Amino acid sequence: MNKVAQQGGGVLADNVLPIMTGRGGAELTIVVPTLNERANISLLVDRLRQSLPLLEWEVVFVDDDSKDGTMLAVRDIAASDHRVRGIRRIARRGLAGACLEGILSSSAPIVAVMDGDLQHDETCLSTMFAVLQRGEADLVIASRYQDNGGADGGFTKLRSNASRLATHLARVLLRTQIDDPMSGFFMLRREIVEAVAPRLSRQGFKILLDIVASSPTTIRIREIPYVFAPRLHGQSKLDSLVALEYAGLLVSKMSGDLISTRFLAFGLVGSAGVVVHLSVLHALLPHGLSFAVAQTAAMFAAMAFNYTLNNAFTYRDQRRRGWRFLTGLLMFAALCSFGVVAGVGVSTLLYSGHSRWWVAGLAGAIVGSAWNYITNSAITWRRQ
Ligand code: GDD
Ligand code: MN
């Protein structure tokens, strides 16, 4: 037997020098979600360079295919600075999902999430890192509502009130003691996220709250104050849909993940669809149409309405556009027709078994909706 076979990989390991790069892996990964932030990228990297001179850090921009050339700006800098990299996501939207992908792309023991629009104070990063490294906490949140922190400059009055209400709801409903559970600026041990990653919602803005609420063990949390600065370039992407998604997250966490945010949205759209259905029927009947014709038209109208709304809202991270919008409508209609058959089947069966009319009707509606939801999630808006 020759020497290599006898000693296995040991021979190679002894004789070949490791490639020396002169630097170890990053100690800290800063994940920055971006959507049309081109003008802010180089400013942010400059600020990181200045505020973290003693750390081995890297920054990962996770971009949802911005149309303003954000990714070009990232690549420009990355070409001459190994600490900068970017992930370009295609046909996907969602702040939480982008943050999650950035965190999971890291191999550093500690990761931070920070906005890309300069509203978060980068000078907090080294303090946050020190707290984690000393083992005093597992998660450090830069919080806007602590003694010296504040958000007056960065917030409109409406935003400020809405944010306070959301914070209050989260504290009461999810029983968290965190002062600013809505913060988009935090740092934690990567293993905490790894453990709960499959359970996290990829939509909405509330990744921090989701991580804390989903974690099976108690996380030691520390909050430090900072001032939420006004946005200099570009505009906020927080809209009323984001607020609705937040409400969905609260319900879904309160139900122990039994009811997903998506299912709630699907149900909400479906209920609105019933109103559309009845309105169309009501509008058409007086025009001398037979009931069957009016009912068919009403069903198609409701179906198109439901599809359009679900595409725009419920599945906006998988939104179908152009031709795919039309083919999606056909799939949706086909799947929902089966849903009707299943629903009618179940309710007829129950009714003939002497259930009350409304029990039979409700059971049919639930079976039909569940079928529609499950099949459309898996087929019409399946993950690409
Ligand atoms: N990749 C990706 N995908 N990035 C996104 C998306 C998205 O769908 N939506 C927003 N972003 C990026 C923005 O480009 C920015 O860097 C960061 O996420 C925050 O977005 P803003 O639109 O500036 O949010 P904001 O300033 O209104 O909200 C801030 O305050 C909230 C609390 O009220 C953020 O810090 C939120 O995280 C925070 O919850
Ligand atoms: Mn912002």
Question: How does this structure look, described?
Answer:
- The chain is an alpha/beta fold and 384 residues long.
- 53% of the residues lie in helices and 10% in strands.
- It binds guanosine-5'-diphosphate-alpha-D-mannose and manganese (II) ion.
- Residues 115, 117, 119, 231, 236 line the site of manganese (II) ion (MN).
- Residues 33-35, 37, 62-64, 93-95, 98, 115-117, 119, 163, 182, 184, 205, 236-238 line the site of guanosine-5'-diphosphate-alpha-D-mannose.
Q: Show unreliable segments.
A: 1-22
**Major beta-sheet overview:** 7 strands, mixed
The percent of residues in helical segments reads: 40-55%
Q: Strand order within the widest sheet? A: 3-2-1-4-6-5-7
Q: Evaluate the radius of gyration.
A: 26 Å
Mean pLDDT over the full residue set: 85
Kindly give the count of domains.
2
What is the CATH-assigned architecture of the largest domain? Alpha-Beta Complex
The CATH H-level homologous superfamily of the largest domain: Spore Coat Polysaccharide Biosynthesis Protein SpsA, Chain A
Estimate what percentage of residues fall within beta strands: 5-15%
Number of strands: 7
The hetero compounds bound to this protein are:
guanosine-5'-diphosphate-alpha-D-mannose, manganese (II) ion
Oligomer type: single chain
Distance between the termini: 51 Å
N-to-C SSE string, H for helix and E for strand = HHEHEHEHEHEHEHHEHHHHH
Kindly report the CATH topology of the largest domain. Answer: Spore Coat Polysaccharide Biosynthesis Protein SpsA, Chain A
Structural class: alpha/beta
Apparent shape: elongated
Tell me the number of helical segments per DSSP (H or I, 4 or more residues long). Answer: 14
Instruction: Give the CATH level 1 class of the largest domain.
Output: Alpha Beta
Keywords: Glycosyltransferase, Membrane, Transferase, Transmembrane, Transmembrane helix
Membrane topology: Multi-pass membrane protein
Transmembrane segments: 263-285, 291-309, 329-351, 357-374
GO biological process, one term: glycolipid biosynthetic process
